[in-house]
Amino acid sequence: MGYQISRETANQIFAQLKEHYDIFAPKVFAGEGCFSDTDVIRYGKINALDEIEWERRSEYSFKEALLAVNETLFYFTEEETTVVSCSEKRLLIFLRSCDLHALKRLDAIYLENGPEDFYYRRLREKASFVLMGCSTTCENGFCVSMGTNRCDSYALYLKISEESVWADCKSQDLLPYFEKAQTCEVQPEYVTENAEKVTLPKNLSVDSFSNPIWEEYGSRCIGCGRCNFVCPTCTCFTMQDILYRDNENVGERRRVWASCQVDGYDEIAGGIEFRKTQGERLRFKVMHKIYDFEKRFGYPMCVGCGRCDSVCPEYISYTSLINRLAKEEA
Amino acid sequence: MKNEYIPFPSQVKEIIRHTDIEYTFRMSFSGDVKPGQFFEVSIPKFGEAPISVSGIGEDTVDLTIRKVGRVTNQIFEHYEGNSLLMRGPYGNGFDIAQFQGKEVVVIAGGTGLSPVKGIVDHFSKHPEDAVRTTLIAGFKSPQDVLFKEDFKDWEKTLNVIKTVDTAPEGYDGLTGMVTKYIPDLPLSDIPNTVFITVGPPVMIQFTIQEILKRKVPEENIWISHERKMCCGLGKCGHCKMDSTYICLDGPVFNYAKGKNLID
Ligand SMILES: Cc1cc2nc3c(=O)[nH]c(=O)nc-3n(C[C@H](O)[C@H](O)[C@H](O)COP(=O)(O)OP(=O)(O)OC[C@H]3O[C@@H](n4cnc5c(N)ncnc54)[C@H](O)[C@@H]3O)c2cc1C
Ligand code: SF4
Ligand code: SF4
Ligand code: FES
User: Fold this and answer.
1) Cα A310 versus chain centre, distance
2) DSSP structure string for A288-305
3) pLDDT attached to residue A120
4) Which chain A residue has the Cα nearest residue B1?
5) A118 vs B237: CB contact, 8 Å cut-off?
6) Which end of chain A is more exposed for a tag (fewer CB within 10 A), N or C?
7) Chain A window 211-250: which residues touch B at a Cβ cutoff of 8 Å?
8) Rounded Cα–Cα distance for residues A141 and A135 (Å)
C-alpha cells in the first residue's frame, strides 16, 4: 500500500519503529575514510531518518548488518563455551535495489550451501528491508546490465524530499505504523540506464583460465583485498581465536572477513599455496563472480553495484576486464 | 536450530607416537564416520585445524596429527589425559562398498596415509572383500615412517610396498618414490581395478600420470584433495575450486571429476 506523509510524521513513525527495531542504514562517518580528511559512507545503526545518506552510494555494503567484519561466535571459559547472545530487537535495513539482489547471494551461501549458518539465520530471520530508490545511476554501477536495477521483494520502499516522504509498504508487520497516513499510488524509482554497460562472457570455461588477461590486469594488483571487503556478495571468512590478556583462561572464537586477493587465503601446511600470483587470484575472484557461482546456484554472483571499481587503489577496472573477456571468450 | 560451530569435548584415550612430530590421538567418539572424512579439531584460544580420520573404532576415532604450527603445537603439548574440542565429521569420505570385489591399489604419501588408513584396515581385516589389495606407501626417510605397528599386520594380509625417498647406507627396505612401483604392479584385470591415491599435490599429480600409463580408466581412480578449510560447512570459501566446495562435495573425488577442478 502507498502513502504520502509529511517529514514530521515520518520522524514520528521512525521513533516508534526504533522501539522494536535496530535500524541500519548508510551514513557518513566523518574523517574515517581511507585517506586523511576524507569521509566514509558505510552502514551503522541510526537514530533518526536525517542520519541516512540518501544521495551517494555507500562505500561498504549492507552486508555488515548481517555479517559483522569481526563476529564473535562464542566465548570460552575453562570449562565451557557460551554462545554470544543477540539483541531481542528486530532489524530494519535500508538498502538499494542491487544490494537487495545481493541478499539472495548471501542467503545462497549461508542458508543453502551445506547446513544453515546459525548466526546468519538468527539475524536474517529478524531482518526486514527498506528499499531506497535510485533516481540517477551511481558511479561505476551497472545494475541494468545485471538486471538488478529493479526489485519488489522489499518490506518498505521510501522516498524522501525536504517536506514529504512517500512510502510503499508490503509488510504486514509495518502496515500499522501507516494506519493514519494518506494513501496514494507509490512506485519505486529505479534507473533504466547506467554509464557503465557490461556484457557477460557467454562461453567461459576452465579454458578461460589460460587467457593472458588475468596476468595483465593482475600485475597491477597489490592484493589489498578492498574489492572483496566492499562487495555485497563476498562472503568469505577466516576463524580466529582470541585470548584475553588480563585473564588467560578466557577467550573467544571469532570469524573475520577474508579476501581471496590477500596472501595466505589458500595456504596450507608445508607452505603450499595454490594461487601464488595476483593474476591467478584475480581470475579466481572474477570467475566466481560471473561464472562458477552461476554454475552452482543458477544466477551470477555479481549484482553490478560498481563498488569494487570505485574502491580499487590501482584503478583496476573489473567492468572493462569483463567486457574484454566477453569479446575474447565469445 | 543447531549451531554447527560449537565443538564438543572429546577425551584423548590413547596416544601412539610414530615420529617426533607425528602422533595418533585416539579420541572418544560415537557416531557415523567414514575414512576420508575429517574433523575440525581445536584448542580454545589457539584455533581450529582440519584433521582426517585415520582409524575408526567401536567408540573412538583416530586422528593422526603432524605438528606444524599454532594449533598442532598446542595439541602436542597439552594432550595427556586431556580432552580436545572437535566438530564434525565433515566431507563425503570414501565409500568402501564401492571397492568391494575389486582389485584395490592404495597409494599414499606421508600423512596422506591417514585418510586412506580406514580402507587399508578394512581390507586387511577382510581380505576376502577384495580380489587383492596392494598398499604402496611412501615416506621421506626411515624416521618418517608412520603406523609402524599397523604395517606389521598389513604385511600379513596385503601386498605391501613400503618405500622411503632416501635412506642411510645399509637400510634394507625399499627406496624411491611411490611412482617407481606403479609400472611393474601385477594387475590381472585392469577394468576391475581401483586406485586410491592421497598425498601432497605434486605426488598425486605424478602418481596419476603413472596410473594412466597402465591404461586404467579415469573412473577407476579416486583422490582426496587437501585445501585450506576454515569451516567445513560450505561457508568460509577457502576450500572452493571452481564451483566445487571441497569440504562439502569432497574431499574425496573420482578422478574423472576431480581432474577438472583447477584452483
Ligand atoms: C581435509 C584436510 C585433512 C587434513 N588432515 C590432516 C591430518 O590428518 N593430519 C595432519 O597433521 N594434518 C592434516 N591436515 C592439515 C592440517 O589441517 C594443518 O596442518 C593444520 O591446519 C595446521 O594448523 P596449525 O594451527 O598447527 O598451523 P598454523 O600455525 O596455522 O600454520 C601452519 C601451516 O598450516 C596451514 N594451515 C593453517 N590452517 C589451515 C587450514 N584450516 N587448512 C589447511 N591448512 C591450514 C597454514 O597455512 C600453514 O602453512 C588436513 C587438512 C585438510 C584440509
Ligand atoms: S563484484 Fe564488484 S560490481 Fe559485482 S557485486 Fe561485487 S563489488 Fe559489486
Ligand atoms: S582493490 Fe584493486 S589492488 Fe586491491 S586487491 Fe582488489 S583488485 Fe587488487
Ligand atoms: S571449508 Fe569453509 S567453505 Fe569449505
Assistant:
1) 15
2) IIIIIHHHHHSS-S----
3) 97
4) A118
5) no
6) C
7) 235-243, 248
8) 13
**If pLDDT is split at 50, 70 and 90, which confidence band does A31 have?**
confident
Q: Going by CA atoms, what residue is nearest to atom 43 of ligand 1?
A: B228
Q: Which three cell numbers stand for residue A195?
A: 554509464
- DSSP-based three-state secondary structure for A92: strand
Q: What is the pLDDT of residue A36?
A: 66
Kindly list the structural domains of chain B, giving each domain's residue range(s) and its CATH number in brackets, ordered by start.
8-90 (2.40.30.10), 96-224 (3.40.50.80)
B61 lines ligand 1 (CB under 6 A): no
Confidence of residue B238 (pLDDT cuts 50, 70, 90): very high
Tell whether the model's pLDDT for residue A244 goes beyond 90. no
Question: What part of A 286-305 touches B (C-beta under 8 Å)?
Answer: 287-288, 292-293, 295-296
Type of residue at A24: F
Cell numbers representing residue B176 in the block? 624411491
Supply the DSSP symbol for B95: -
Please tell me which of the candidates A73, A116, A241 has its beta carbon nearest to residue B1: A116
Among A76, A117, A243, select the one facing B235 at the smallest CB separation.
Answer: A117
Mean pLDDT of chain A: 93
Nearest chain A Cα distance for residue B238, angstroms: 6
Nearest bound ligand to the CA of residue B244:
4
Given B48, B243, B245, which is nearest A239 (Cβ)?
B48
Q: What is the pLDDT of residues A100-122, one digit of tens each?
A: 999 999 999 999 999 999 999 99
Ligand 4: residues within 6 Å at CB? B 229-232, 234-239, 245, 247
- Cross-strand partners of A239: A255
Q: Write B184-189 long-range contacts (CB < 8 A, 24+).
A: B185/B105, B185/B134, B185/B214, B187/B103, B187/B105, B187/B214, B188/B103, B188/B131, B189/B103, B189/B131
Extract long-range pairs of A76-82: CB within 8 Å, 24+ residues apart. A76/A250, A76/A251, A76/A252, A76/A253, A76/B44, A76/B45, A77/A249, A77/A250, A78/A249, A78/A250, A81/B6, A81/B7, A81/B44
Tell me if A81 and B44 make a contact (CB, 8 A cut-off). yes
How far is Cα B22 from Cα B28, in angstroms, rounded to an integer? Answer: 19
Amino acid at position B150, single letter: D
Gap between the Cα atoms of A28 and A73, Å rounded: 28
pLDDT at position A168 over 90: yes
Chain B residues within 8 Å of chain A (Cβ atoms): 1-7, 42, 44-48, 66, 68-69, 200-201, 226-228, 230-231, 233-238, 240, 242-243, 245, 247-248, 260, 262-263
pLDDT tens column, A185-224? 999 999 999 999 999 998 898 889 999 999 999 999 999 9
CB contact (8 A) between residue A237 and residue B200: no
Q: Which ligand is nearest to the CA of B240?
A: 4
